[in-house]
């Protein structure tokens, strides 16, 4: 599903150039649930941004579902993001003046899906994350866990190939974190490929594979016995 | 532009930000309001001035002589200069090619007119048939003085409308007999109106030849009036008229031996020259009003642009989210641009509506000499609407570009 070869990325800050990724080789098969771990500054967020086409690599190749991702202009990147990827953020990033169902329906709006079908599909995913009754609530009327579930429903709405989650539990307490992880595990069980960036070992243990990043290189890439989040709840 | 989904997005944003939208709209609406009022008044001034000129033909040249105030070539000041039929004929001959209508005039100020029991004092004016066109008079009933009246020195008269109302009320005047100065009977042949109003409608026109006989004037005349032939270009006509006026002035000064700088003794009044000055003034006023109005709108538009910039800044994160979810840059641009255009247009239309409304309401009640019917015409309204849409697009363009250039990765970075 994801194929990365010799990925380099550096940022220039004034006169200094900061080499963040120093040659990443990495591949993910369909249906995997992978966590990317590493301390702050290890390059894990940069990697996720490149995977998410929010940023572009200086060097190296990136293939997503057989499509080479290179020389993207803004328009193409937007279309690929919409078609291939679903994003889940630490701070949820819901649009605060839109209610839950409209937030979930937004990717479909950019796919030019009609309003009626959009609402039906958005409702379907809200039901899936257990928030059908909250469809008409604004984000500030929801708890943190509920917000993240709305965000997950939104990420799923466009039926993407890959879900990219950046510290999805970073702003949540432990109990809520496990509930969200349970939801993510469930989605993975249905066959969807998911990548999670996290620095919490317990969250990483709930995935099927842990990739460890340090100073811009992969130092460790191991399969793990998945811990079911439900057992903690 | 006609994407219903996008409109729904825009309405949603506006609904969620009522106060912000309201304040923005207010500045645009007041800008347009002021522009409309200014334009209304500039057209009012134009109408007012035009109607001042309408009382007589705008291409009139009027010649009159009075008393010299300066000595010249050994002649004393205080000489009365008297034009005669001969002078009139000489001028007619000399300027035949330039003249459109012509008349010489002999008038007295206080002529007493009686009809049955009613009487009044009016100005009596002897004139030629062309006077009708030179005075811009329109017949209400009957006919004007004609050439056979002149040839036969007939005792016929033409009443001004106001005069007819005074003497005859609602009765028919044509065919009736009025008595001048208690001893001469005149037959009324017609009634006229003059855009000059009451002052110009209280005159009795009689044939020039009759006037000279009745008032024992012999060959004497008081004034000469011409209209010059209009050429296609207004400026050309003005130049021609000015040249002719100057030439006539020169002729009379030579004829009567008048000092070149004696402005009182010989007067040649060139209406077209005056009109040109006033029209030039109107154009200037109009230009100044447009300038002020456009300036006000620019202030409003800069306000909208400013607020749109703030909106974009405020919505940086939201725009980043939208882009992460697959919004195309063009969609972001249109979202911002359309909102700006929509707000300016709607607010502007409200301003336009109130401006036009106020002019319609108050306009007819304004009765000053130089302001008449202040209103905006259809073309002006359409022009302001187009200005609005362009202004809205301009106001939204820079913020929209900035919004489209927002990098989702930077917008979404957690602080």
Strand content of chain B: 15-25%
Report the helical percentage of chain B. Answer: 40-55%
- Judged by helices, strands and strand pairing, the structural class of chain B is alpha+beta
Shape of chain A: globular
Q: What is the multimeric organization of the chains shown?
A: heterodimer
Radius of gyration of chain A: 18 Å
Order of helices and strands of chain A: EEEHEEHEHHHEHEHEE
Computed structural class of chain A: alpha/beta
> Under CATH, the topology of chain A is which?
Rossmann fold
Rounded to the nearest angstrom, the distance between the terminal CA atoms of chain B is 36 Å
Tally the structural domains of chain A.
1
Q: How many domain units of chain B?
A: 2
Q: What profile does the largest beta sheet of chain B have? A: 6 strands, mixed, barrel
Number of helices of chain A: 7
CATH architecture of chain A: 3-Layer(aba) Sandwich
As residue ranges, the low-confidence spans of chain A are: none
Strand order of the largest sheet of chain B: 3-4-9-6-8-7
- The CATH C-level name of chain A is Alpha Beta
> How many helices of chain B in DSSP terms?
13
Question: How many strands, what sense, and barrel or not for the largest sheet of chain A?
Answer: 6 strands, mixed
Largest interface: A-B, 28 and 26 residues
Keywords (chain A): ATP-binding, Nucleotide-binding, Translocase, Transport
Pfam family, one (chain A): ABC_tran
Protein name (chain A): ABC transport system ATP-binding protein
Domain ABC transporter (chain A): 2-233
